[in-house]
Amino acid sequence: MSPSGASDPDPHPILPYARQWIDESDIAAVADVLRSDFLTQGPAIERFERALCATTGASHAVAVSSGTAALHLACLALDFGPGRTGVTSPITFAASANCFLYAGGAAAFADVDPATGALQPAALDERLHEFAALGAPPGVVVAVSLAGRAAALPELAAVCARHGWTLVEDAAHSLGATYRDPATGATRSSASCTHTRAAILSFHPVKHICAGEGGAIVTNDAALAQRLRRLRTHGIEKPDSAELPAGEGGWFYEQRELGYHYRMTDIQAALGASQLARLPEFLARRREIARGYAESLTGAPFDRVLRAPAFEGDHAYHLYVVHFRSRELRRAAYDFLAARGIRSQVHYIPVYRHPHYRRVSGEIRLPGAESWYEGCLSLPLFPKMTVADQARVVDALRAFAQTHG
């Protein structure tokens, strides 16, 4: 206690690794919906979907309740199911693989580039050759655009085309990222679906924009989008008045297939649309913070630190990942930061290491994924993070380096 009797300030207030940024414009957007006639299934959904199309360049967007729901519906709408196998990266959140199991199929993994954590086209090609040799039918590949960097989508698309597989981008980390199309030299947006049948987005509070929870599937395929909209609402459609069966009225609807209750509310959509309008500001701040880390963190105890040319605008920096020279150093740094109120995170434990996947897939070890996991640590990075917040992280890591260099 201070002499006045007031509590002393916390010497180590918690600094999270990620946090949403809600301002008065977001609150006003939500309040407008709360005062309106529609809290769900109303006009805010379509407005948000149109804004997502404008941002990504995709022709159609289907807003849903979460990024996980988006992955599940993408598999279902692509007729992925029993007897099929899906392949994804092991360096991802488990939902990227779980979607295959939800749809009744099997999940498998191809290795990643140990320098980026992203799916390697050569490793995917080898994996799909293995399935072809076994006589397995083509399935779905979910390519994860990890940490804000677009996956090698043109190259992965070429591999999938050779084997007859369907490519989906998990763009939960990469809204606002771009990549170069080697065929044309053009700049493409992550989730534009230039090289994929569909892409998914997530609007969890740690992502680029926040809707509380929520997600979306984007696609350039009108028929696929129509089916996705049906699947998100129990498989139900209402026919146009000209198509009503004789004697039926405006109340009539049909469940045309088994679907799910995966709708987003208008409340979430209003928040998402308000946040999306601020995406350029969010991206600029994320890139500024990433540049600060790259300029400040050098040498021991790091094995590598993310650097240019990623700062040319292609990377959306959902995460800023550094790599320590060993897992022991990574663990020591994690504890050192935590003791000072600084929260870091590991992205990710390879999915195949989780007990559930060990039971269904057996013991797997992929060298690229193991190398990535061995030393990776995600530092705090979010748009509302201040200069002082970042200095606190850098100073702590420099102090750690003095004793663990």
Would you summarize the structure shown here?
The chain is α/β, with parallel strands linked by helices. Helix content is about 40%, strand content about 15%.
Radius of gyration computed on alpha carbons: 23 Å
Beta-strand percent range: 5-15%
Please summarize the sheet with the most strands.
Answer: 7 strands, mixed
> CATH homologous superfamily of the largest domain, by name?
Type I PLP-dependent aspartate aminotransferase-like (Major domain)
In helices, the fraction of residues equals: 25-40%
CATH class bucket of the largest domain: Alpha Beta
End-to-end Cα distance: 37 Å
Strand line-up across the major sheet:
1-9-8-5-4-2-3
Which architecture of the largest domain does the CATH hierarchy give at level 2? 3-Layer(aba) Sandwich
What is the number of helices? 13
Number of domains: 2
Coarse shape: globular
Structural class: alpha/beta
Description:
With 405 residues, this protein is an alpha/beta fold. The chain has two domains: 24-278, 3-Layer(aba) Sandwich (Aspartate Aminotransferase, domain 2), CATH 3.40.640; 280-404, Aspartate Aminotransferase, domain 1 (Alpha-Beta Complex). 38% of the residues lie in helices and 14% in strands. It has 13 helices and 14 strands. The strands form four sheets. The chain has a seven-stranded mixed sheet with strand order 1-9-8-5-4-2-3, with helices on both faces. Strands 12-13-14 form a three-stranded antiparallel sheet. It has a two-stranded antiparallel ribbon with strand order 6-7.
